[in-house]
Amino acid sequence: MTMAEYAYDYIKDRIISQEFPPASTVDTGRLMKQLEVGKTPLREALQRLAFEKLIMISPRRGTFVSDISIVQLQQAFDARLLVERYTARIAATTMTEEQITGLRDLFNDTDDIAVQGDYMASISVDQQFHCLIAKAGHNEYLRDFLSMLLPVTMRLWHYVHRLAKDSGAKIREAHQRHFPVIEALASGDPDAAEKAMANHIITFRDEALELIMHGEMG
């Protein structure tokens, strides 16, 4: 891992977890000292995060964590629906039994994650799930596009889990929503896989956007 990749992962994780809250200032000088990285790798990391719309860089004002807006999230989910419905169709005809097993194995530790209320681990499982399906489609352009979209919507997973009265139950519920997608992929039916993936994304989208519209995310 390069220093730029290290800085990118560090900052991205803190944006998703809200340790760096929406609209907050990114203190580049402090990050350089804290991470022990130079200007060039930090700049590379920040440019990548800006490309993924997780931060905004203003030459005169500074660097800021992107705010979360309904319009931005709707656009991100619309893009995900277009990309992931298609990747699910492709994956239904290309995934091997070993890859299907790999998807199922992601959820082996569901109970432990739920008991611990570790929603960052739950978010990681979800991200790996979608990336593995995209990878199985053997289309690098779609895979790269999805990798840019996921962090934007993964920020909402943090909100949803954090606001849940019973984080363990929310984690179990979230993980169970992946199983119809796995079974559809395992059946080798492109139509079923596309429908299952669309339902999976729409369910989370509607739940998350409802939280925002009711003002529960402050």
Main sheet summary: 2 strands, antiparallel
List the helices and strands in order: HHHEEHHHHHHHH
Please, how many helices?
11
Stretches where pLDDT is under 50 for at least 5 consecutive residues are none
Strand proportion, as a percent range, falls in under 5%
How many strand units?
A: 2
Provide the number of structural domains: 2
With strands numbered from the N-terminus, the spatial order across the biggest sheet is 1-2
Structure, explained:
The protein has 218 residues and is mostly helical. It has 2 domains: 3-65, Orthogonal Bundle (Arc Repressor Mutant, subunit A); 70-213, Four Helix Bundle (Hemerythrin (Met), subunit A) (Up-down Bundle). 74% of the residues lie in helices and 4% in strands. It is built from 11 helices and 2 strands. The chain has helices at 3-16, 28-35, 39-51, 70-94, 97-105, 110-116, 119-136, 140-163, 167-176, 179-187, 190-213, and strands at 55-58, 62-65. It has a two-stranded antiparallel ribbon. Helix 1 (3-16) packs across helix 3 (39-51). The radius of gyration is 18 Å and the shape is globular. The two termini are 35 Å apart.
